[in-house]
Amino acid sequence: MHSPSLSSLPRRLVSLYLMVCLGCLLLSVTASLFLAAHGALADLAAGILIVPLLLVLGGAALIRRAVTSHVEIEEQLRQLALLSPIQGNQLQRVPETDPIGIGWNAIVDRFSGRTALERLEARLEVKLRGRPSGERLVLLDVFPEGLATTDGDGKIVFGNKTLKALLRIAAEQEISRVRLSESLVGLIPDQAESIQKSLRNPSRPALFEIKLGQTPAEGILRIARYPLAGAPDAVETHLWSVRDVTQQKLAEEMRNQFVATATHELRTPLSNIKAYAETLAEHDDIDRDEQRRFFNIINSEATRLGRFIDELLNVSQMESGALSLARHETDVLRLTEEAVAHVQPELQRKQIEFQSQIPPKLPNLHVDKEKLAASLVNLLGNAAKYTPLGGRVRFQVEAAQNEIHFHVEDTGIGVAREEIPKLFDKFFRSDDQRVREITGSGLGLSFTQEVARLHGGQVTVQSELNKGSRFTLSLPLQAE
Amino acid sequence: MTLVPARILIAEDNRVMSEVMRFNLQRAGFEVETVLNGRRAWERLQEQPYSILLTDHQMPEMAGDELCRQLRQSSLNQDIPVIMISAKGYELDVDMLYSELRISKILFKPFSPRQIVECVSQILHAIEA
After folding, report:
1. What is the band of A223 on the pLDDT scale with cuts at 50, 70, 90?
2. How far is CA A396 from CA A409, A467, B71, B86, in A?
3. What is the ipTM of this complex?
4. What is the pLDDT of residue A4?
5. Closest CB to B20 among A270, A276, A438
């Protein structure tokens, strides 16, 4: 038992441990006898005996655990010594309790040729096998993405609840054995050919989008299909994911449209400024009146540019929730007069009949004068903008008991019923060709609504296509 | 050699812009007429011959590209040189405008008035030659 080569490490460990234990026990018995002889407390003596005993038992358990893998490794090595040559699959993995076990497992894996991914898969499989399959299915059902696996015929083996909802299949209807590509075609029969084309090669991943209607708002699904290589029972050959990307697409579209509009709105006054400034610089024989007229144009175009930049800043503040009010005691009558004066030139240019009904006496309001004026200019400006030549715009202010209402009514092009809910969305602009032809940022109404909301009020709308619209901005009379 | 000044039609809904173009082109010796939208331009082109059309892209009633499409299909003005000006950027289908609608030149805002004058002179010169 003396040469290290003959005695196994685990055995040496155990014998060493046992010797230490025996020493401890001897010491404690001697100590307790000594204490008892000198009339010390019996409890203390017992304690001195129990503590080492517990330590011995605990230590034994720990050693047993550490030693099992070592014993297992030793056993396998012994067999290896008897059986030659070495075959990878003869070696077995052991519990990884210490570096020796981990190292042994690495050797086993190397021999059996398993990759890290396969080991992960194997471990995952053990984990999932341990759980009831019901739990796994619920987990997949609450997933926001439609998921499915299909067999070699393209028939569904497993599909979650989200998939049913996205493919517009009733929740109680069974979907296994349904061909997934067919239910996609069922959604949009006219795109059958392009769907089949996207799914042509079953051995390659496929990624494509399908539109559920003419406009993006009617729905866009992003479909992905991945081949499942080397599935154990080879029943499931594809993994599918179906995602509703409608909102994402709409947001992208709105942003692109906004950038296009903003660029146009910025370039128009800028190009006027440049053209007039260059004209003035290049011709030194322009008469004084003409010169003054050109300078005035440059000035007013610069003002327009500044106003649009303010509007952009308002939006970015709205986006970040940082739009705030600077409230002051405000003369409402003057405020409305200023707002009307702002749109008067446009009303006159289009020969629009303007009626205003404003009571001679109105209570003062504790409001943000600038923002409220900009909001009224927005409503009146829209009425002027979207009312054809020779139409009518009516501006009415009405002070009720607790609220004040500003009504702006026009005989303009109106808003289609389905577009009314989107009217106050940032960057929203109607699909109506008549609106498309008029420049606008799609920000005015959302700004106005936000200003009303910050004041504790709201903007409401009634509108009929081709008849006209009536917008009402209502504010509480008592500041909150 | 012709002594009659070339007659230019400007279709632009922004009055301020069309004024400054008119000012510079008139000073360069051209005869200039302005209209505020594509439809009005189409009507004027039916009534009168013009040497060149200068049109904005985005206009009410009838946009610049639509105006050109109609002109190219008409018998009266199918070969009139067209300069298009636009405040748009990447969303403009430049290739289509050049090849399909045979636009002579597209100028993007902001441009300098001298550029317009030079462009008009060049195109007219090329026709005369």
Report:
1. very high
2. 8, 19, 47, 39
3. 0.91
4. 41
5. A276
Helical H segments across A38-98, by residue range:
42-82
The predicted-structure confidence for A100-148, as pLDDT tens digits, reads as follows 888 888 887 776 665 566 666 666 666 555 444 566 667 788 888 998 8
Pick the closest to residue A385 from A431, A335, A358, A345 (CA basis). Answer: A345
Take residue A190 and report the two structure tokens written for it. Answer: 């006219």
Q: Which of B87, B111, B112 sits opposite A268 (nearest CB)?
A: B87
Average predicted confidence (pLDDT) for chain A: 83
The interaxial angle of helices A288-320 and A246-282, nearest 10 deg, is: 160
User: Chain A to chain B, count of Cβ pairs less than 8 Å apart?
Assistant: 60
Nearest to A109 by CA among A126, A127, A123: A123
What are the residues whose beta carbons fall under 8 Å from the beta carbon of A334, sequence distance 6 or more? Answer: none
Q: What is the phi-psi region of residue A201: left when phi exceeds 0, alpha when psi lies from -120 to 50, beta otherwise?
A: beta
Q: Which residues pair with A147 in a beta bridge?
A: A241
* Helical packing angle, B38-47 and B64-73, nearest 10°: 30
Q: Decide if A374 contacts A447 (C-beta within 8 A).
A: yes
For residues A466 and A136, which has the higher predicted lDDT (pLDDT)?
A466
How do strand A392-399 and strand A403-410 relate by DSSP bridges?
antiparallel
Most confident option among A421-435, B24-38, B60-74: B24-38
> d(Cα A22, Cα A158) in Å, to the nearest integer?
62
Q: Does A297 touch chain B (CB under 8 A)?
A: yes
CA A420 to centroid of chain Cα atoms: 26
> What 3-state DSSP class applies to A93?
coil
Positive or negative: CA dihedral A440, A443, A447, A450: positive
Contact between B110 and A260 using a beta-carbon 8 Å cutoff = no
Q: Do B87 and A276 touch (CB under 8 A)?
A: no
Mean pLDDT of A307-331: 84
Going by pLDDT thresholds of 50, 70 and 90, the confidence category of residue B35 is very high
Contacts of A445 (CB under 8 A, 6+ apart): A378, A382, A423, A424, A428, A459
Helices (H), A188-323: 192-198, 246-282, 288-320
- Interface residue A299 vs chain B (CB under 8 A): no
Q: Which of B60, B91, B111 sits opposite A271 (nearest CB)?
A: B111
Taking CB atoms and an 8 Å limit, are A275 and B112 in contact across chains? yes
Q: Is the peptide bond before B113 cis (omega within 30 degrees of 0)?
A: no
* pTM score above 0.90: no
Do residue B110 and residue A438 have CB atoms under 8 angstroms apart? Answer: no
Between the CA of residue A231 and those of A120, A134, A176, A377, B48, what are the distances in Å?
A: 15, 21, 19, 66, 77
- Comparing alpha-carbon positions, the chain A residue that sits nearest to B12 is A268
The pLDDT assigned to A2 comes to: 42
